[in-house]
Amino acid sequence: MQIVCNLGPLKEQGASSEEWTTFRHIVRRGDWFGEWSKSMTWLVNGLSDCWLEAIGYTHKTASGEPSLLVTQIPKLQAPSLHQIPQKLDDAGVKARRPHVAMLVDRKAIQTIQMRSHIETWLASHLQSLGFHKVSTPLLTAGSGGAVARPFETVATELQDTKLNLRIAPELWLKRLMVGGMGKVYEMGPAFRNEGSSDFMLLHSSC
Q1: What distance, in Å, lies between the first and last C-alpha atoms of the chain?
Q2: 32-70 pLDDT, tens per residue?
Q3: What global pTM score does this model have?
Q4: Number of Cα atoms under 13 Å in the Cβ half of residue 76
Q5: 62 - beta bridge partners?
Q6: Where are the domains of the chain?
């Protein structure tokens, strides 16, 4: 939902041209504006691309876009101290600063939300089939269950033991089955020393 700030409706509610000019000059991408009571939260697109809470009425632009026509000039609550880029293509920056990627491209949030919905559905479906969700160790003295190079590290209290981040949980799941757990599954990260990121793994045994 976008916010529409027009001088005409604002002046009808007592706003001056000077206040409007000041508002236009201080708005920056990433700023938080608004009154923190008796208001609704919307996302501003276009001029400022800010998050703000604003008071106004439902409205449609000349092109038919649903909007909120504000009747009060939003007040600055928290300025953005860093310039948010218009476009972000660097995969490294997206990985290290996901909040910036979300501010630049709202589809980044949709991806995370969709992943959450998929995981919730999978968990519900597997539970309906009689599976039990478990958590197996991420750090072990030996990796196994798949053919891949593991990440290696050393723990403070185990200086003489080389530890590995798991590359697959399947051996641990099979141990649980041997112990009598029956149907088990796990959704969690696996780490393979073949790229710059870990991946989510769904593995089940029955």
Answers
A1: 47
A2: 776 544 334 444 433 344 444 567 778 888 888 888 887
A3: 0.60
A4: 17
A5: none
A6: 2-84, 86-124, 129-205
